From TrEMBL:
Belongs to the small GTPase superfamily. Rab family. It is found in: Membrane. InterPro entries: P-loop_NTPase, Rab_GTPases_membrane_traffic, Small_GTP-bd, Small_GTPase. Gene3D superfamilies: P-loop containing nucleotide triphosphate hydrolases. It comes from Pleurotus eryngii. This is Ras-domain-containing protein.
């Protein structure tokens, strides 16, 4: 086997994942969405961040228990003039990171509108986390933790505060949403094979199905064997059109 073949195999293993999940990052302009994403992906603060024009795409693969999850991340512009463009990227999202700035009451005041748009356009099983960013500027705080926490509870979304500057909690919102989606798959509430679910199986899951027809998601919840999901494979007869 040539050296390059080993290299290709290693890359393939690194790239392999069980699920691909579509996430959107939304909220008012200047709340720190791009900086939050940048820290999550590059583990550093993004200096001199400019307003996002339309939408920017990035991705990161994370491990949750035994599962490798590839997160497809869509960073949307908060400026009103891009609203119609950015909304078109909400379609079929499985997760939403809804960001406000703890030092800006105005960015908190519009949350209902952002959430309503996401709920209307994304997956029916959308999992949302409300993120109060810029927690490092506590002395300039305009939105109390308790008030935001109540808003989140009233609107049935998760909540946490972060700082893209210090890196505090920057991974947590993404992992929390991915974990909730994985648990929804495990419990059978969310079917990755359904169009618009915002989730699809990766190579790794399919490969596992090829060696055994049962795919277990039990490890994440710590309940061995429970929640085993059967993957539906379409039958293909040679000589006919596939799928
Ligand atoms: N102190 C502090 N400043 C931050 C933090 N996150 C972002 N900023 C600053 O806030 C400003 C806006 O950050 P962006 O990430 O570009 O904001 P955005 O939400 O992506 O804005 P749009 O792309 O216009 O929607 C920049 O000047 C950042 O340096 C943070 O956690 N703490
Ligand atoms: Mg931005």
């Amino acid at each position: 086997m040539a050296f390059n073949d080993y290299d290709a195999d290693a890359t393939e293993l690194l790239e392999a994942y069980d699920f691909l999940m579509k996430f959107i990052v939304i909220g008012e302009a200047g709340t720190g969405k791009s900086c939050l994403l940048h820290h999550f992906i590059h583990n550093s603060f993004k200096d001199h961040s400019q307003h996002t024009i339309g939408v920017e795409f990035s991705s990161r693969t994370v491990n949750l228990g035994e599962k490798r999850i590839k997160l497809q991340l869509w960073d949307t512009a908060g400026q009103e003039r891009f609203r119609s463009v950015t909304r078109s990227y909400y379609r079929g999202a499985a997760g939403a990171i809804l960001v406000y700035d703890i030092t800006s009451r105005a960015s908190f005041a519009n949350l209902s509108r952002w959430l309503a748009d996401a709920k209307a356009l994304a997956s029916p099983h959308l999992v949302t986390v409300l993120v109060g960013n810029k927690a490092d500027r506590d002395d300039e705080r305009e939105v109390e933790w308790a008030e935001a926490s109540k808003w989140a509870a009233d609107n049935d979304v998760h909540f946490m505060e972060t700082s893209s500057l210090t890196g505090d909690n920057v991974e947590a919102p993404f992992l929390l949403v991915a974990r909730a989606i994985l648990l929804a798959i495990e419990s059978g509430t969310l079917d990755p094979e359904k169009a618009g679910s915002g989730v699809s199986y990766g190579d790794r899951a399919l490969r596992r199905v090829n060696s055994s027809s049962r795919l277990s998601f039990g490890s994440l919840s710590g309940r061995p064997k429970k929640g085993t999901v059967r993957l539906k494979m379409k039958r293909w007869i040679p000589g006919t059109k596939c799928c």
